[in-house]
Design brief:
Elements (H helix, E strand, L loop, with lengths): L1 H6 L5 H16 L14 H9 L7 H13 L3 H13 L11 H11 L2 H14 L5 H13 L3 H10 L5 H13 L3 H13 L6 H13 L3 H13 L5 H16 L6 H13 L3 H13 L6 H13 L3 H10 L5 H13 L3 H13 L6 H14 L2 H13 L6 H13 L3 H10 L5 H13 L3 H12 L7 H14 L2 H13 L7 H13 L3 H10 L6 H14 L2 H14 L4 H13 L3 H13 L8 E6 L2 E6 L12
Antiparallel strand pairs: 1-2
């Protein structure tokens, strides 16, 4: 086992878990029903029994030996030990400890007849209602493809265990009854049972192995909705495609369009490109769904140029395609391109919908184009999208970032139904304008509704306290996050608190917060404290934060400039010059500042030193 762990030391956790599920499948492939004969006990088992012959055997020692055999993948020897134990008459009130191991051995050997005999003994002994025994029985019956008995026992259980549930779901898929599989999954999720990463990976890999590729993709989507969206899910997406090919199945456009969102959601450009290459190499049909998924993937991975190329080559474009490209431009800071595409969409005869509004409003917010935002707001009113809380949230954000907090509040007051995100938008809007008391007032008003604040709510209200200098209120909110609302603080919450304390000059307290965090400080956390060190001319802490930032983001010029400014403010001119020389040696350059102005609904962008605009008057 040490050799195995050494050989996979470079594989991430998700890949290793996926490997385990594949290995598990190999263990059961090709095995058939076996009859266990207690008269043939292996030499290894005999040695174990003989070594203990000098002392009276008890259930605990038998359990340890049988459990060890199961762990060492020796299920036949485990059952031989159990048979020997019965012959010796080792009976006890705590036999329930041994049944799970014995039933697991039956499952590994697909020894249904032997498992039924043990089940009968369990009933006679009165242990059928024991939690671990009942789950082990379900697991054994499911593995042996006796789904009728497995489901009957499973439904009778007052408390369901994840492994037995997965076994039944996989068992149904093995006999081709995927409707029952997915139905049971629905039932268990509605009952609140949460499946971990191993469970999802096992179910998906088994569905693919048994040739149910469409159902495997459905499971894959459910896994994404359950929160398992990261680089590992991209890896699993590629494994799904490869496994389908190995099974003789050719992934179609539906399959491709289903797995690409995993790369988009977790910004896995590398895997997304591999899938795109697979499409081109295998001549997969490029319909509107596949092409839209490709545009979305490239845009969310930050490659907006490639997204634009794919979008331009599309022969057919629907509203979703336009929305994805508009959102891609907005999310990547190309607000003017998003606005141009929005008008082009209308000229092409495609009617913008509520999703279009949610996609285009951030572009207005980013560029602070209030007039454009007002026109879009009028379009929203005329087309009946005003009551949509997502659209309302985007409107509040747009007005706030364009400097019109009054109209942002008007949108808030006129909304008939408010979701958590809508409340968050108003809290954040006031925070952006430094109106901490108003932000807190909205937060307190939200608490009188049936809605519960989430982590975004606390990011907004903590940010409001930071900008308003409300230290006591901010620390009290930070304390009640976990204590009252059971929300574990994330990096963004710690960054707000560090910034709050740092601005108030409480640099030692801010360092204490960083040292108490359950994870390594992020760039935003260190950056907040470095900025406070510049304000309060604290060289010692500033150097510590800068050194950490140089490792986290070596190309961020702002960190070098802040440290140099701290040295200059304390008359350490040589050190200030040393930092600037470090910037030059590493090829780090300060980004040019830019500004833009809106004239007659057109945006004009200017950068420092750029005099190329034809209408610019130079002195």
């Amino acid at each position: 086992m040490r050799i195995l762990f050494k050989s996979i030391s470079g594989i991430n956790k998700f890949n290793f878990l996926t490997m385990l599920s594949v290995l598990e499948g190999l263990l059961f492939r090709g095995k058939s029903q076996q009859n266990i004969k207690s008269s043939h006990i292996s030499s290894t088992v005999r040695t174990q029994i003989n070594s203990r012959s000098c002392e009276k055997q008890n259930v605990v020692s038998w359990t340890a030996m049988i459990g060890e055999c199961v762990k060492q993948e020796k299920p036949k020897e485990a059952l031989e030990l159990y048979t020997q134990m019965q012959k010796e008459g080792t009976l006890s009130d705590s036999q329930n400890l041994i049944f799970p191991s014995v039933l697991k051995a039956c499952a590994k050997l697909l020894a249904l007849r032997f498992g039924k005999e043990i089940h009968g003994y369990i009933i006679r002994s009165g242990y059928e209602s024991d939690f671990w025994v009942a789950n082990s029985l379900v697991f054994m019956y499911a593995k042996c493809q006796n789904l009728e008995d497995a489901r009957e026992l499973f439904d009778k259980m007052s408390v369901k265990e994840m492994d037995s549930c997965v076994a039944v779901i996989v068992g149904y898929s093995q006999i081709g009854n995927c409707d029952e599989s997915l139905g049971l999954l629905d039932q268990m999720q509605m009952a609140g049972l949460k499946f971990d990463l191993i469970s999802w990976t096992t179910m998906i890999s088994r569905f693919v192995h048994y040739g149910h590729d469409v159902e495997a993709l459905k499971l894959f989507h459910r896994m994404q909705l359950s929160g398992y969206v990261h680089e590992g899910s991209c890896d699993l997406a590629l494994r799904l495609l490869n496994q389908m090919q190995l099974s003789g199945l050719k992934p179609n456009s539906f399959t491709i369009a289903s797995v690409l969102p995993a790369c988009a959601s977790s910004a896995c450009l590398k895997y997304g490109k591999e899938i795109h290459q697979y499409i081109l190499k295998n001549k997969v049909e490029l319909n509107v769904f596949v092409e839209t998924a490709l545009v979305d993937m490239y845009a969310k991975c930050g490659n907006i140029e490639k997204a634009h190329i794919v979008f331009d080559k599309m022969l057919e474009k629907n509203a979703v395609s336009w929305n994805v490209m508009i959102a891609g431009y907005a999310q990547n800071g190309h607000g003017s391109d998003a606005l141009k595409l929005f008008h082009e969409m209308q000229r092409a005869g495609i009617k913008p919908n509520s999703i279009t509004m949610v996609s285009i409003l951030p572009a207005c917010a980013h560029m602070a184009t209030l007039q454009q935002g007002i026109e879009i707001h009028n379009y929203i009113i005329q087309n009946g999208y005003s009551s949509n809380s997502l659209v309302g949230s985007a409107l509040i954000d747009m007005y706030a970032k364009c400097g019109d907090i009054k109209d942002a509040r008007r949108v808030f007051d006129e909304m008939p139904t408010r979701c958590v995100g809508f409340w968050n938008a108003m809290i954040t809007a006031y925070a952006l304008h430094g109106r901490g008391e108003d932000s807190l007032a909205i937060f307190n008003q939200m608490q009188h509704t049936a809605l519960m604040p989430d982590h975004i709510t606390f990011t907004g209200v903590l940010s409001a306290c930071t900008h308003a200098g409300m230290v006591c209120e901010g620390m009290e909110l930070f304390d009640c996050m976990n204590r009252v609302y059971h929300i574990a603080p994330r990096a963004e919450h710690y960054a707000c608190v560090v910034d709050l304390l740092g601005r108030a000059g409480c640099l030692d307290e801010a360092c204490g917060i960083i040292n108490s965090m359950p994870f390594e400080p992020t760039a935003s956390i260190c950056g907040a404290l470095l900025a406070s060190c510049r304000t309060h001319c604290n060289v010692e802490i500033g150097e510590l934060m800068a050194d950490h930032l140089f490792k986290l983001e070596p190309e961020n010029s702002g960190n070098y400039i802040l440290l140099s400014s701290i040295y200059s403010a304390t008359c350490r001119w040589d050190d200030a010059e040393r930092v600037r020389k470090m910037m030059r040696d590493r090829g780090v350059r300060k980004k040019l500042g830019c500004s833009w102005i809106e004239i007659d609904k057109s945006m004009y962008t200017f950068s420092v030193g750029n005099e190329s605009h034809p209408e610019m008057v130079c002195s």
